[in-house]
Amino acid sequence: MISKIKNIIIILLIFSSCNKVENNTQNTYKEKYRPQFHFSPPSGWMNDPNGMFYLNGNYHLFYQHYPEDNVWGPMHWAHTVSKDLIHWENKPIAIYPDGNNYIFSGSAIVDTENKSGLGNGENPPILAFYTNHDMFLERMWNETKEDRYIHVETQHIAYSQDLGNTWIKYDKNPVIDNPGFRDYRDPKVTWSEEYKKWFIALASRDRIIFYLSENLIDWEYISEFTGLGEMNGVWECPDLFPLVDEDGKKKWVLFVSINKSSPNGGSGTQYFIGDFNGKEFIVDENFLGDEKSIWIDYGSDNYAGVTWNNTSDNLKFRKFIGWMSNWKYGQLVPTSKWRSAMTIPRNVTLIKESDRYRLKFSSINLQKIESTSYEETVSSQLNLEESLNRILLSEISTDSFEINFKNNKENLSIKFSSGIFEIDRSNFQTETGFDDNKRTLELGTFRKRFINKQTANFKSKVSSLEILLDNSSIEIFVNEGSLVMSDVFFYNSRFNVIEFSGLDDSLIEHQVLESIW
Ligand code: FRU
Predict the structure, then answer these.
(1) Does 108 lie in the same domain as 194?
(2) In this structure, are 358 and 387 located in the same domain?
(3) pLDDT value of residue 430
(4) Atom of ligand 1 nearest to the CA of 323
(5) First-to-last CA distance in the chain?
(6) Per residue in 397-423, is it b (16+ CB within 10 Å) or e — as a string?
(7) What confidence tens digit (pLDDT) does each residue in 198-245 have?
(8) Nearest Cα to 258, choosing from 286, 223, 294?
(9) Is the pLDDT of residue 448 over 70?
């Protein structure tokens, strides 16, 4: 009898736990603050995007992941795939840590000609280059500062013979050993058609170190880049690639993330434009002008971003994605059971502004998301009183939308808020505004813990503005991405009004975006 009761209890327990799992999965991607059209992990912690490559119609994205908790921990490479960079199919974890060896950031390439010899004849091998971070050595180094413990980070390969589904750690790792620097990580591999060689850019302390190879296994040190831009912090997650402008002029771009000292505090990513002669990267003399550094994003939440390898036509543009968070508070944001999202993917193009090269980061086309679309002229169809230019969001049950403004006048200001007549500052409120005389863009995100106001100088006339709002993030693209601000925020109550001032006969389009999940 007792054993019968035991069995019944066990069955009930199993049933209820199955139910729990099922309920959990059903509620995944519906949690408070969960972005609806950005990629975020189903559960657990996420930081940098890793190993991005395009093959046979699929964009592969890997990311730094700790599945057991929603704070940073033993790093895995998790895997997700998309055909349009909007809808994602989550795959099993690709590369697991092994004891003290964590799988830090890196990149992946398609070895079409099997130069590495790691293919099996059926498919081109895909090679992932990542930093093996040895936590045992790190602890010993921190305690003793003895030289023999300094080789915490080395560069390893894992390869896939089935187009990215499963991964094998290379048995002759490391392929690049540590020359004696504690920080020595995040290898980004690029194929150069011009030099017919593979190049690695990796970050070490305040510099980027370059290597070259013909077979992807043997790497030769070629040069270092340092001494320019923001250097107060540790450089991380570089990217090096060529782009051509509208006139077909080719330049090389170097991205450098830095773990602190970004324009708005905390981590951020700067870029440089110049030439790469197959050995050294040399920044254009007039690139910085009177700026100390040029950033890919003037908001707080776009870090460690890099571009996809192996995309077709990738000399005209590259596809980019970044981690939409910041090391300053990334582990504290009030979300559970996951933490953080990626930025919306962006097209990176090269432009020449007066006599300087600059990059544009425009958002990918969101038309592919099913949406309820409106197109209105503020003054006529919406019939708004001049002093009360606003859109009421009460009938809309989501905070996921896109708004486009064209031909806006000077001194535009847009305010999203949760109170209609009275704006309660203790509630969350996001304001964004332009001062066209001073040519600045301001974004104030008033968050519970992370109150800040961000300002970016903007040199040209504002002719278009795209705003993506997705529950707990805002991304603002000025003039199709000549200047971008990305920020996360956490509201107490949802927005129910968007107010404008300084708008006159401007064309506004806004779309409510359906969930991709
Ligand atoms: C950047 C970074 C990388 C490192 C990874 C570890 O955010 O610090 O330099 O490889 O995160 O998760």
Answers:
(1) yes
(2) no
(3) 52
(4) 7
(5) 47
(6) ebbbbbbbbeebeeebbbbbbbeeeee
(7) 999 999 999 999 999 999 999 999 999 999 999 999 999 999 999 999
(8) 294
(9) no
How close is the Cα of 101 to the center of ligand 1, in Å?
A: 14
**Cα gap 115→89, rounded to integer Å:** 30
Closest ligand 1 atom, residue 303 Cα: 7
Atom of ligand 1 nearest to the CA of 72: 12
**487 CA distance to ligand 1 middle (Å):** 20
pLDDT over 80 at 111, yes or no = yes
For residue 254, which phi and psi values (nearest 5 degrees)? -125, 120
In degrees, to the nearest 5, what angle opens at C-alpha 189 toward C-alphas 187 and 195?
140
Structure confidence at residue 452 (pLDDT): 62
Q: Which domain holds residue 380?
A: 367-513
- DSSP class of 352: E
- Strands of 96-234, DSSP E: 101-110, 126-134, 153-160, 168-169, 185-192, 197-204, 207-213, 220-225
Q: Are residues 389 and 334 in the same domain?
A: no
Average pLDDT of 307-330?
92
Ligand 1 neighbours, Cβ below 6 Å, are: 47-48, 64, 75, 104-105, 131, 185-186, 236-237, 304
